[in-house]
Recover the amino acids of this structure.
C-alpha cells in the first residue's frame, strides 16, 4: 500500500508549546520533526559559519535571514527521512518562507495538508518561557514551576546540567513576540483562506493540548 506523505505546519507564538507538541505529533504519525530553531541552535553550538551568522539574530529575538534557513530546509526535505511527511515547527515564519515551503513541497508532489495553530495569551507565554529550562545534551524540556526535573538543575533522562536558552530572557521574549505578530501571525489568514487552518486553545497541560490537536486534525490524519 502506498501512503501519501502528510505535511503539517504548527503555528503559534513563541512558548505556545510547539516543540513539545511537534515531537508528539511526529511520533504519533511517523513524521519527521523539523524544528528550524533546534537546527539553528545546533549550528550555533557547533560554531559552524551558518551558526555563527545566525547566533546574533537569535540572541536579539530577531528572525534569521530567510536564505540561511532555506538552505537547511531544502537539504532536509530532499532527504529520505522526510519521505513520509514532516511536522514543521517554527517554519514558515514569514510569507516568503511559506512560498518557499510550497515550492519545495511541490517539487516532491506534496503540499501543506494542515496548519495547526496553538493559541496562548501573552501573560502566560512570558511565565512559560522565562521558567523554561532545557537539556543541552538530549533536548528534554522542563519548566521550573510546572514541570521541574526530579533533581534541581539536572536532566531526568541523562543527568546533564539544564540550561536556559539565551533568547528566553524577558526582554528578548518581548521582542520575539513583536516579531511574531508582525511577520508570522499574517500566515494564519493565509492558511485560513485556504481552508486548512485548525485552531486550538493552548492554555492547558500538554496531554490535553495534544488531544485537541489530534481531534482538530480529524480526517486529515492518516
Ligand atoms: P524557536 O526555537 O522556533 O523559538 O526559534 C528560535 C530563534 O531561531 C528565533 O527567534 C529566530 O531567531 C530563529 N529562527 C527559528 N526558525 C526560524 C525561521 N524559520 N526563520 C528565521 N529565523 C528562525
Amino acid at each position: 500500500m502506498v501512503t501519501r506523505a502528510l505535511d503539517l505546519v504548527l503555528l503559534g507564538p513563541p512558548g505556545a508549546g510547539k516543540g513539545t507538541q511537534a515531537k508528539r505529533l511526529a511520533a504519533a504519525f511517523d513524521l519527521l520533526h523539523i524544528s528550524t530553531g533546534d537546527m539553528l541552535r545546533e549550528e550555533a553550538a557547533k560554531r559552524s559559519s551558518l551558526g555563527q551568522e545566525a547566533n546574533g539574530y537569535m540572541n536579539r529575538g530577531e528572525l534569521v535571514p530567510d536564505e540561511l534557513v532555506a538552505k537547511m530546509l531544502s537539504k532536509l526535505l530532499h532527504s529520505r527521512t522526510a519521505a513520509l511527511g514532516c511536522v514543521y515547527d517554527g517554519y514558515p515564519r514569514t510569507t516568503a518562507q511559506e512560498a518557499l515551503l510550497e515550492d519545495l513541497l511541490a517539487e516532491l508532489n506534496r503540499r501543506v495538508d494542515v496548519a495547526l495553530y496553538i493559541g496562548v495569551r501573552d501573560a502566560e507565554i512570558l511565565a512559560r518561557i522565562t521558567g523554561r529550562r532545557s537539556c543541552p545534551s538530549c533536548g528534554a524540556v522542563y519548566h521550573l514551576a510546572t514541570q521541574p526535573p526530579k533533581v534541581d538543575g539536572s536532566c531526568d533522562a541523562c543527568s546533564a546540567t539544564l540550561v536556559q536558552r539565551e533568547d528566553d530572557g524577558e526582554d528578548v521574549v518581548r521582542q520575539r513576540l513583536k516579531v511574531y505578530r508582525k511577520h508570522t501571525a499574517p500566515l494564519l489568514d493565509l492558511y485560513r483562506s485556504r481552508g486548512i487552518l485548525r485552531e486550538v486553545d493552548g492554555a492547558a497541560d500538554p496531554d490535553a493540548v495534544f488531544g485537541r490537536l489530534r481531534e482538530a486534525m480529524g480526517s486529515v490524519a492518516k
